[in-house]
Amino acid sequence: GPFIVRQETRPPEPEAARAQPRPQGNDQGRRQGLRRRRDRRRLRQGL
């Protein structure tokens, strides 16, 4: 009864916390890479 509920509520929290920063970090890295590439192209065009 209560033990099952506690176990169900506890494990998904760390899993979700671990799963969230990983995709966010990947998305941020990809976005930053695209921004950096765009900035480089802009700098080349400016030069």
TrEMBL record:
It comes from uncultured Phycisphaerae bacterium. This is SSU ribosomal protein S20p. Residues 7-16 have a biased composition (Basic and acidic residues). The keyword Endoplasmic reticulum does not apply. The keyword Ribonucleoprotein applies. Residues 1-47 are annotated as: Disordered. It comes from the Bacteria. Residues 32-47 have a biased composition (Basic residues). GO terms for cellular component: ribosome. Keywords: Ribonucleoprotein, Ribosomal protein.
